[in-house]
Design goal:
- With 96 residues, this protein is mostly helical.
- 20% of the residues are buried.
- It has a domain at 11-77: lambda repressor-like DNA-binding domains (434 Repressor (Amino-terminal Domain), Orthogonal Bundle), CATH 1.10.260.40.
- The chain is built from five helices and no strands.
């Protein structure tokens, strides 16, 4: 369920607040562990980059989560933001 009055939590915020900070792992350490650049991880953490299917698989391996967890967070983020500017169209009526 998408929140109505605020954006959903970005997967990068969830990664930082619920995983890295409690584990005492820095972004630099985690990026090195994943074989990612610091910039790639930092862009996800700061909401400037989304989580792809490949990223979700990597995060799920490293953090013992399901890839769906990361993809659902990203999907909710993307959908909520698209809904803010979406212009509705009339439903298609059957012709004939």
């Amino acid at each position: 369920m998408l929140p109505k009055k605020r954006p959903p939590t970005h997967p990068g915020e969830m990664l930082m607040k619920e995983f890295l900070e409690p584990m005492g792992v820095t972004q630099k350490e985690f990026a090195r562990h994943l074989g990612w650049t610091y910039a790639r991880l930092n862009e996800i953490v700061n909401g400037r980059r989304g989580v792809t299917t490949d990223s979700a698989l990597t995060l799920s391996d490293a953090l013992r989560t399901e890839p769906d967890f990361w993809l659902n967070l990203q999907n909710n983020w993307d959908l909520w933001h698209s809904m803010q500017t979406h212009k509705k169209v009339m439903p298609l009526r059957k012709v004939g």
